[in-house]
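Board notes, transcribed. Complex of a protein with magnesium ion.
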Amino acid sequence: MSLGLTGVTLTYPDGATRLTALDDVTLEVPAGTVTAVVGPSGSGKSSLLAVAATLITPDAGTVTIDGTPTTGMSRAELGELRRHRIGIVFQQPNLLPSLTAAEQLQVMARINGRRPRGARERAMELLDAVGLAGQAGRRPHQLSGGQRQRVSIARALMNDPTVLLVDEPTSALDHERGAAVVDLLTHLTHRRATATVLVTHDRAHLTAVDRIAEVDDGRLHLPAPTG
Ligand code: ADP
Ligand code: MG
């Protein structure tokens, strides 16, 4: 139960040459831990998450999910892997305007072919876990920004992922609510044993995470091991 990136290099076309977004990145995230990745805008944070999510295939290197290297998997196999093993929380919650909080979660189970009945129970349990038990029937416009981000976190956990990937979840929130979202993510990671990568350009909220790595111009710098 972990996430591994080994020697990952990713380039994008850039005129006549190529821009190196990730430069030989190696990262191992054990189950039940949060690695925060901090770095300025344009340093490669979202690219790192996209590769970890298997949404982009890197030029070189390997992504390993649950001990299984994803190199060489077909598109269908990767889709299956993402649906079952990977939860993603984007910068913007991307909720469907017409659905209630509970329904946003239940849609995920339907995509996965699970039975609707169990899905309802699981949705309610997860909304409770993110502090929104009383808001299950509300639609996005009836929720605050912080509450919408919590729905999106609960949604990402709906299929019990191995890997949880979170991109700047606090960027639209004030400090207090941002800190609460990071604390919640850390708590859920420890409880549900996900291998979590939390990307942010803002260190202020990162009091509770297990480890802080820095990314600078596509290069990842891990902290020296302690203890
Ligand atoms: P961050 O999330 O840290 O802001 P990104 O991973 O989005 O950084 O971007 C890293 C670098 O790659 C930046 O220079 C960005 O302009 C470039 N980049 C990101 N996505 C693309 C793309 N789809 N095509 C070309 N260049 C891209
Ligand atoms: Mg980004």
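The mean pLDDT is 93. The radius of gyration is 17 Å.
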